[in-house]
Amino acid sequence: EVWRAGIRGLDKTVDDITKSVVNHVQTSLARQAYNIDDLGAYQAAALSVRDNLLVNWNETQLNYTKKNPKRAYYLSLEFLMGRTLDNALLNLGLKDEYKDGVQKLGFSIEDILDKERDAALGNGGLGRLAACYLDSGSSTELPLWGYGLRYKYGIFQQLISPEGNQLEAPDPWLDNQNPWELPRLDVTYEIRFYGRSERSHDGSGRAVWAGGQEVVAVAYDVMIPGYGTKTTNNLRLWESRSKRGFDLNSFNAGNYEGAVESSNSADAITSVLYPNDHTSFGKELRLKQQYFWTAASLADIMRRFKNQNKPLAQFPDFVAIQLNDTHPTLAIPELMRILIDEEDLTWDQAWTIVTNTFFYTNHTVLPEALEKWPVPLLEHVLPRHLQIIYDINLFFLQAVEKKYPGDRERLARMSLIEEGQPKQVRMAHLAAIGSRKVNGVAELHSDLVRTTILKDFVEFEGLSKYSNVTNGITPRRWLDQCNPELSALITKTLAVDKNVWLKDLKLLKGLIPHAEDADFRKAWAAIKQRNKERLAAHVQSTLGLTVRTDAMFDVQIKRIHEYKRQTLNILGVIHRYLTLKVMTPEEKAKVNPRVVFFAGKAAPAYYIAKLTIRLIVNVAKVINGDPDTKDYLQLYFLPDYSVSLAEVLIPASDISQHISTAGTEASGTSNMKFCLNGGLLLGTVDGANIEIAEEVGESNVFFFGHLTPAVEDLRYQHLYHPVPIEEKCPALANVLNQISSGLFGNDDIYEPLLNTIRQNDYYLLSDDFDSYIAALAMVDEAYQDKEEWIKKSINTTANMGKFSSDRAILEYAESFWNIEPTPFK
Ligand code: 26Q
């Protein structure tokens, strides 16, 4: 209890809390305490918690100002935060007090927490990783800030039509006022677009960029409390606003029309999160988002640095900037522009600073996901930056040519510019050469980065720059908050305070001996069961569907994508259904009932992914309505997947599926969340699955499928020596034919999806189907032995310590950023 007193902003008692909540009802919400509803109670409670956070936030910033440590900045276009209230209460150590406080006022804390809307400013893994890293940065007391965009609309809401089509609706998450942000109307920067860049003729390399459009960036600050610490870091999100009357002066006559066009208007820039992951289209508005955000963030970082009155050469001694994928890569030419055009440094001085400041994390090797920007678009929107990119390229290729004289193919491969109609700038190459370190997000993925997309760069610059930081997850949200009963059992069993093991997750190993204790196993299994019932109740209340809870819960939740192979899963479900249909009652009696859950969004323009959803929904209708099978197999597609839905699904899972084609999933992070909650993993030998198996033991995971080195050869075979699917994989061919013959709907709508498999089968479903079905059978068999299964579950949780995002963020801090914990009393 002593640790709590030190971190509460205002050190509140239950009495203080009720007073403060009532006060906010009356003064902030201007309502009467006697007729407040759950939403009002949520808002008032949130405002009261915010008062606590503010005290710590102010002290944290003051501490940094006094001590002037080197700081790190995490630049991410996505922060998938989810809900805040429960997490803030946990981190402040005020959960019990607020529970009692609101109860005194006649409310239940669960109902209040449930009123909060998710902050869904991200697509998936990359955005949620950024959110976990901020939590860990504050929890380990690192001077780490986030910079992002304050989208007016987050990731779209997903609706499923009766026919099974995904429909998209906007996510107006700011419609109720957001108690978690602090508008900073005094922190603003003017950001230029378009115009002209004139190089000077004095040999200095400087240029003057003028004209065009100027847009104002306004800061909104989000407080990020650490768990069990006073450190409360900042996430600064930028909103775009027009300069109003003033900007007309800066427009050329020729640009005037563009200025009043709505797609070009200033507030469009931060209006909506782009909902596609893993495909990059050269959209002008997306480019403007990227520049708006990187330019505002760098101006802010530069202003903070300059307040210290240090020479610019010391910039990298005080500033480290992590680029979350290539999305913020324009920060590299932008810092060059500031240093050369505004600060009068020479090119070499500027380049030395830049290449010691930035660090680049790659999250994918899929070719369609690698960002490229058309040169004509860059020239139009950011003329000065294009000049700088060309200069970087020139000096870089001169150095390459010096090391490999006459190797023109190598120069073409390594160039920042890809030839073609139009020419394009390769952002991953720019991010790599402009950074001090480059990393992938799991061992296998980092190897693939080094041996495929950046192979030439490793050869040229040396291996030591190209490294790995395996992803992690925050155990606060992804164990204690989402699975409070399991957390309490762990605390009791380890006999250490939870604020100790939640910050030193390797202590979970202390559970290992208890796997042999029958009473402990019973308690462990009972919690899993109650989590299943909690999920079933949620499905009942939100969708009106009755889920049986005496079955194995089998879960696949992630963005819908061909490489993640939800199609393999649904074809496996159909295979199971067809098998059940021909079983005798005696055979069926031996079958373990299974409930299969899917959830995930498809990018709105991703036709094949949307068809996959449609197939799942329509298969569910048939299976759930079939009296022959419904006692043995149920199937649900849960709409509108979100962080909050994940928090209910993950603790309820017995087995989860992470079945990407080997070499395609960079890491995965939900795999870690399931295993931390005692769910077993069914997966391919891919991404972080491999490291999870290393930690928990291969006997506790179910692996199947071809390995990464085989993938290229198999694809080659598909193209040049195709074997008819009936011959290669009769079981799969049968499933496809059943779909075609109308078992799940009578028209030909699924043919384009089925043809991706029948034709070149790029993601190798036909190569992995048989071993997938065999792995599913092994899962069934293992589940028959309940005691052994529970042991596996316990041992899995016990060995997941490595995957805490505290470990990951400390690796970044120590081996890349060179920053240190900076606590205060
Ligand atoms: C790019 C250009 C234009 C518009 C959008 C994008 C874009 C947006 C989001 C491209 C990619 C993303 C998101 C990628 C992502 O979430 N990657 C995942 O990152 C996780 C964290 O490292 C990994 O665990 C996953 O394996 C990886 O797929």
Explain briefly what this protein structure is.
This protein is of the alpha/beta class.
Please supply descriptive tags for the structure shown above.
825 residues, alpha/beta, Rossmann fold, 6-stranded parallel β-sheet, 24 strands, 15% strand, globular, binds ligand 26Q, Glyco_trans_35, Pyridoxal_P_attach_site, glycosyltransferase, Glycg_phsphrylas
Describe what you observe in this structure:
The protein folds into two domains: 68-83 and 118-149 and 173-470 and 810-817, Glycogen Phosphorylase B (Rossmann fold); 517-792, Glycogen Phosphorylase B (Rossmann fold, 3-Layer(aba) Sandwich), CATH 3.40.50. It is globular and about 90 Å long. A nine-stranded mixed β-sheet has the order 7-10-11-4-1-12-13-17-18, sandwiched between helices. The chain has a six-stranded parallel β-sheet with strand order 21-20-19-22-23-24, with helices on both faces. Strands 14-16-15 form a three-stranded antiparallel β-sheet. With 825 residues, the protein is α/β, with parallel strands linked by helices. It binds ligand 26Q. Residues 123-126, 129, 274, 276-278, 280, 286, 363-364, 369, 371, 441, 471, 665-669, 687 line the site of ligand 26Q.
Helical proportion? 40-55%
CATH class of the largest domain: Alpha Beta
In total, the number of domains comes to 2
Largest sheet: 9 strands, mixed
Strand element count: 24
The structural class is alpha/beta
**What value does the average pLDDT take?**
95
The CATH topology of the largest domain, please?
Rossmann fold
Oligomeric state of the chains in view: single chain
Strand content: 15-25%
CA-atom Rg in angstroms: 27 Å
- Helical element count? 36
Tell the overall outline: globular
* Annotated CATH architecture of the largest domain: 3-Layer(aba) Sandwich
Cofactor: pyridoxal 5'-phosphate
Keywords: Allosteric enzyme, Carbohydrate metabolism, Cytoplasm, Glycosyltransferase, Pyridoxal phosphate, Transferase
Organism: Coprinopsis marcescibilis
Catalytic activity: [(1->4)-alpha-D-glucosyl](n) + phosphate = [(1->4)-alpha-D-glucosyl](n-1) + alpha-D-glucose 1-phosphate
